[in-house]
Predict the structure.
Amino acid sequence: MVKKAIVSPILAPPVGPFSHAIATKGFVFLSGQIGIDSTTGKLIPGGLEAETEQLFENLSAVLSAAGKSFNDVVRVGVYLARMSDFPAMNVIYAKRFTEPYPARTTIAVAGLPLGASVEVDLVVEA
């Protein structure tokens, strides 16, 4: 299998042994992003809405590094620390996608890195 790492020069390097994204077999798999401010390396203040806006900016930076956009996304994984945040996240999410919408899974989780409220990963057609 041939894998190509995708790295965004805008974002901080990953904090562990993983890539921002991997391209292989006609798809690009983006690692989950949380609302980290790339200049400080810290979770952006302001709660769920601010974090969601920031994580989509982070995902946009990775998509751009792969030569892709949100129009190329075929699947989205959303991970929420509190399922009660679903409506607020969904309003911000809806600004990034048009019909036909990508497939999506939303899961409530016990915790996210840095105490984040939300994390999102993507699968993109290469």
